[in-house]
Amino acid sequence: MRKSTLRRSCAALAAVTSFALAATACGGTTKEDVKSDTASASATGKADPNAELKKGLTVGFLPKQVNNPYFTSADKGGEAALKELGSSYKEVGPSSATDTSGQVSYVNTLTQQQVDAMAVSAQDPGALCTALKQAMSNDIKVVTYDSDTKPECRNAFVSQASAEDLGRTEVQLLAEQIGYKGEIAILSAAQTATNQNIWIDFMKDELKDPKYKDIKLVKVAYGDDDAQKSFQQTQGLLQEYPNLKGIISPTTVGIKAAAQYLSGSKYKGKVKLTGLGTPNDMRKYVKNGTVEGFELWDPAKLGELAARTSVALVSGQITGKEGETFTAGDMGEFTIGKDGVISLGKPTVFTKDNIDQFDF
Ligand code: RAM
């Protein structure tokens, strides 16, 4: 038995009571113990690449937001992979992308339910840390996917693509579309979102290149991955900046809402829009001339890789240390990079020429 019953019931207790109470009841575990336990999770554990993949595990998926079609696809990918591996899937999560305390409660719920691993897309880099460390100290493997927490608060991060590539290519796409001239804005998701914020930092850095000297980033607006708010924020951007030439929306909810607004307005085809969207959401806006090009990875593949990484961690094939490798089924071999990051690969750019080849 991999886990001691005592540790598990302590996890359950800690999840529902205050930490101090749980610590006392569990034989005096201190915060320091938890810290060093966690730090050793990937630092001193030894990976056995030949270890057999365990079956009968339960992996809990905790997306940023459950009613977001992007996460529905991602988590379905995780579910299918777990089924194939002989393990079980469950999904919990908040319906708003700005409910960080809700996410913390869900981490505690999964800990209490004694899952073997959890795959989490973090709404905020720091807010989940204590709860995730508590999960790890109870032998639950923690994988972040899509949006990371701090490296010490999880065993591995399954990243959709290089954050740098994503940030820079979105600026490159928009710059070409507007002829390297004019005011631009960003319509992001939640203000705390780890993934969007890293991409935006790289967008700003890319804009420092002299070739963009005639482009001015006038505002970063936040639509909170809420369709209505994102629509209103787009409307607000155009009111505030009537000369706006382009918008980058690095969120599937944001880009869809922005396209919807632009498509029904006098700005259609004049104010350019790019960012990260699903081909199924964006097809009609590409075909009606609102959007020329945008990008994304396959969310189902991201979820699949998060599930396979979780099972590899629980089975001891990997510990999350840089340089370790594992085979993720038909997806092939992956090597863990710096800070425990596992990268899915390169995103696809969608235009009218290829969009019909994709169905997600
Ligand atoms: C939204 C979410 C998610 C992001 C995608 C691109 O669905 O914010 O975190 O990765 O967009």
- Which strand order do you get reading across the main beta sheet? 2-1-3-4-5-13
Low-confidence stretches: 1-41
Number of domains: 2
State the share of residues found in helices, binned by percent: 40-55%
Description:
With 360 residues, the chain is α/β, with parallel strands linked by helices. Helix 3 crosses helix 6 (129-137). 42% of the residues lie in helices and 17% in strands. The chain has helices at 5-16, 19-25, 31-43, 69-84, 100-112, 129-137, 163-177, 194-206, 227-240, 252-263, 279-287, 299-315; strands at 58-62, 88-91, 117-120, 141-145, 156-159, 182-188, 215-222, 244-249, 272-275, 294-296, 325-327, 333-335, 341-343, 348-350. The longest helix is centred in the last third of the chain and has 17 residues, at 299-315. It contains 12 helices and 14 strands. Mean pLDDT is 90; it is low at 1-41. Strand 6 (182-188), helix 8 and strand 7 (215-222) form a beta-alpha-beta unit. Strands 2-1-3-4-5-13 form a 6-stranded parallel beta sheet, with helices on both faces. Residues 64, 68, 70, 121, 146-147, 189, 193, 195, 225, 251-253, 276 line the site of alpha-L-rhamnopyranose (RAM).
Summarize it.
It is built from twelve helices and 14 strands. The chain has 360 residues and is α/β, with parallel strands linked by helices.
